[in-house]
Structures are given as C-alpha cells and as structure tokens.
Amino acid sequence: MAMKLNMLPPSVNNMSVRVFVRAAGIPVEEENVWGQTQEADYLGKYPPGLTPTIEDSELPKGVLGESCAVMMYLASRERRDDLYPTDLKRRAMVDAANFYTLSILYHVLTRATYPRLQYPGYPGEVATSDATDDAKEAARKSAEEALPRILDTFPAFWGTDAGFIGGGDTPSIADIRLASTLEFLAVTDTGIPEWGQGYISRVESALGEAYSEPAGDVRGYITQVTGEAVAAG
Fold this sequence. Notes:
With about 230 residues, this protein is an alpha+beta fold. The protein is built from nine helices and four strands.
C-alpha cells in the first residue's frame, strides 16, 4: 500500500516534498487536503494542522510533517545518498542551506509574496492587522527590498550560481527545497534573480518531470492570481 502524502498543490512547501518523492521513486497516494487541515480529523492526526504530511505506520506517531524533515527521513530510509549525502561534510552544507532557507529566506519571502498570492499571513504581521492598505503594501515592499541581500548568500556560499548544494553532480534535498521556494519570487516586482532562473532551470533539467509536474501546479496558481503566465525553468 502506497504511503499517503497530504498536500496543497499551490504551496512551495508541499511542492518540495512532491518533487522529492518523484525524484526518489517513492510511490505515494497524494491527497489534496485544501480546507481540511483545521478540521478535527486532520488535527487529530497532526495537531500543528500544517502540510505537507506523510502517513506511514512505521512512524512513531503514524504521521510526519515539515518538508525538510520528511525529505531527510525518506532519503535516509531509502539510502538515497545522491539526494541527502551521508558524507558528514557534504550533509552539513545541505542541512545548513535548508535551515537558512526555512529560518531566514522563507519568513521574509512570505511577507513579500503572500499578500499578492492571496494567502493568509501569520499572526502579528502587518498583513493580518487592521492597518490601512497603504501600510500593508509598505510592509510588503519592505520585505521585498530585504530579499536581495538574503538571496545573494546562496550563490556566494552554497554555489548555486553554478552547481548544486552539497557539491554533488545532481540536486540534493536542499536544492529541491530552495528551487521550489524561489518559484514564489515570480510575483514580486524584482522577480527571480538571474542566477535563480538559471538555478531553477538546472534543477528542473536534472529532475525532469519529477520537478516540472509539481512546479506546474505552483506556476499555474501564480498565473491564476496574477493573470501573468510563469515561464518554465
């Protein structure tokens, strides 16, 4: 019986795991749980009420969430050294990139893109307050202006302008996570940086349909909310 993957197609968090399972050749039963994550049934299985999650009887709680944790677990279980290196030095670079993406880049990126994607913001942010529309747009623009400095660290430290994170010949889970995240930059005024466009293209070329199929859902949603087509990598 295939493992179950609960997901939301327009989400880059979900996209990363959807790309990963395809790249790793892991059979899953995908279920679109749009509108269900805050209902009792889902919360009973996974109290955080977030996606993506996998359901597998082998797990201590029968379910696991957080995109990077899911990829780390499955890559280790399947012994996919190509996706998640067992060499500690290479793995450290992959882990560091993932942690930076999630703890720094993604938080600023959501503030810059969620309003335009028509996604709900997080509690305590200007976007979710009773501030004026002008104040909300100023906050969004401030976040967008902070992105280039953060984005520049990836080619400078992780070599994403020419290769893959971790020093391998093929994309790692950190590349899958970062490339997926960069897709949302299409809704910003500055767009995806030149190195990022080449990087996404390189990841997509290496992974083929494993990347392009889930990416198509994200790009399709961006086109739907902005009215502008998003080019493939």
